[in-house]
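Changelog note: in this version the structure field was regenerated for every chain. One regenerated record is shown below for reference.
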Amino acid sequence: MPDTDTRWLEREDGVALAYARRTGTRPGVVFLGGYSSDMSGTKATWLDERCCRRGRAFLRFDYSGHGRSGGRFEEGTIGAWTADALAVLDSLTEGPQILVGSSMGGWIMLNVALARPRRVAALVGIAAAPDFSQDIFWNLSAEDQERLRRDGALKVEEEDGSYTVTHGFIEEARRHLVMRRSIAIDVPVRLLHGMRDGSVKWSLALDLAARLATDDVRVHLVKGGDHRLSRDPDLALLGRTLDGVEDAVSADSPSR
């Protein structure tokens, strides 16, 4: 498989976003990673290899403060990372795209689809976690909530690992909440979620499906699946899901 070299897209503020892009047929596939993840992860590289085999355009990238991109993770917000996703979509892709969002990337993909409805052909969520910032905050004890306000940052321990969250991230994320109303997205949506997910409840996939305006929504629950859904059977399911989505939307999208 030919390698995709890492390149950088410079934001207006001078922060460089790392990305790897593969040309091919449209609609292309854009991978949106999770909180504190990067584009070298299992799902991102597996999708790259899959798209290479099929000759399909593919893009993966690191949000600011993640992976090889510039910026500080502690200064990141849902708004800033959505802006990063919009920047790479606008500058590095052509025509409609299939967005694949993992965990936080599932929230970002909804924001992008709402902001660029003509550029999005379909959505595939992997343990999609819209509005997860509020779940983090309200699941904290009163003491930890106060500690987060006082210190500005807090290390959170979960079944699937630990991560650091900032008070600024929690506060800014309230501007981007989507699960409080109907979501005006009218493209095919597929939601994959593990029932052993220790970070995001699988019932969220059902709630999200109900809020989406489109009737073309399918939820696939994986009984033994965890939050990452990176096992070989999980990746095979992701591949089959993309096969179906690509078949459904390719007829309406011109080849590159």
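Spot check on this record: Strands lie at 6-10, 16-22, 25-32, 56-61, 97-102, 120-126, 153-158, 161-166, 189-194, 217-222. The first strand starts at residue 6 and ends at 10.
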